[in-house]
Amino acid sequence: MNSIPPIRMLVLTLTGRCNFSCRYCYASDVDAVDMDEETAVEAVMMAGASGERFLLQFSGGEPLLRFPLIRKLVHVVEENHFNAQMQIQTNGSLLTRDIGRFLYDHGVGIGISCDGRPSVMDRTRPVKDGSSSSKAAARGFRHLAEEGIGTGITCVVTDDMVNDLPGIADMAHFYGNVHQVGFDILREQGRGESLHEPSARDMEKALEAVYNRMAMLEKVTGRHIHFTQEDRVAHLYGGGNHEFPQCYAMNGEAAFVDVHGVIYACSSLMGRETYRLGTVKTGRDPDKVREVGAFIKKAMSPCRSCEYFPLCGGGCFSRWLDKEGRVRPSDAECAMKKFFIRKYLEKNR
Questions:
Q1: Does 74 map to a domain?
Q2: CA dihedral (207, 212, 213, 215) positive or negative
Q3: Cis omega (within 30 of 0) on the bond before 314?
């Protein structure tokens, strides 16, 4: 039995370099070098070979430091007629109008990392040259807005900024072209090893404040901004697969490629030999793919006994894995998922 599922999520670490030095960056241990073009192209060809639809995410470091390579890979996808949904998650500082227009015109979804008001952003996401990260990101948002391009926001949540979380609603409305906001609980890897996730109580309290503020701003502006987590609940409520649909690693469908062309089960697990699946040159090792998938499935089994599981889809293994290598539930993540399930059901029952 050597067959394995096709790749449905390909994440390319195009560079380990970054112009920011975020306090919680789980990828801070990645070598500060660039992935070569040959490796990147081979990885895309590997994912596209099945003919199945796959998610292609350009990652880093700061991926826009390699924009010429991104442009090349987009053309590879188009020339080979691959059924790829392309995305980029960026700190926004290098987004020009021309780059934004290229990404939009070629169907690359744009997400910008933002933690809220300027005082929070400048503290949690410092720029290496000492300049303001909030101003740098604001330029990126503005350039997209000038081109009529919308974007999503991803906000990382730690225990020392959770009380400032309502500010993300202000910034989402301030920029004017944000259509979606999602939250990413701290992962205890990289620089995140020195930080902590918020308590379940603090997380729920902060989300209630964010939710109420977003509702108030919607009344004032007439603009509705989606919450990523609530959209997922809606999908599962509508009959989506609730058996860990977001965990491509568990399902043997993931290929997270580091700057050297080594394939791991998840971007948060890069550098951990246990979760190494192969290389772009050799392909994924079927035995290793099944071994890692089975381990993750067993580790996450407590989710199945939770009453919220059908509308939750299960927790995230990389957030349950602590800096000591132990697997334990993320109270903050569970609190967040339960919160959005309750909110969705209140509106739809």
A1: yes
A2: positive
A3: no
Residue 246's CATH number: 3.20.20.70
Torsion of CA 341, 323, 259, 47, to 10 degrees: -40
The pLDDT tens digits of the residues spanning 222-236 come to: 999 999 999 999 999
Give, as one character, the DSSP assignment of residue 80: T
Half-sphere exposure of 72 (CA within 13 A, CB side): 16
Q: Which residues contact 289 (CB under 8 A, 6 or more apart)?
A: 4, 252, 265, 277
| 81 phi-psi bin (left φ>0, alpha ψ -120 to 50, beta other) | left
**pLDDT for 284-330, tens place per residue?**
999 999 999 999 999 999 999 999 999 999 999 988 888 778 889 99
Quick: pLDDT tens for 95-133: 999 999 999 999 999 999 999 999 999 999 999 999 999
Helices (H) and strands (E) in the chain, counts: 12, 11
How far apart are the C-alpha atoms of 96 and 132, rounded to whole Å?
17
Q: Domain range holding 168? A: 9-348
Residue 151 lies in a domain: yes
C-alpha to C-alpha distance for 132 and 112, rounded to whole angstroms: 16
The dihedral built from the CA positions of residue 94, 27, 34 and 278, taken in this order, carries a sign that is negative
Residue 163 falls within a domain, yes or no? Answer: yes
Contact 60, 27 (CB under 8 A): yes
Q: Going by C-beta distance under 8 Å and a sequence separation of 6 or more, which residues neighbour residue 57?
A: 9, 10, 11, 12, 86, 87, 88, 89
Nearest CA to 184 out of 306, 21, 318, 342 is that of: 318
Number of domains into which the chain is organized: 1
Is 4 inside any structural domain? no
Tokens of 53: 């639809």
Tokens 């000038």 belong to: 146
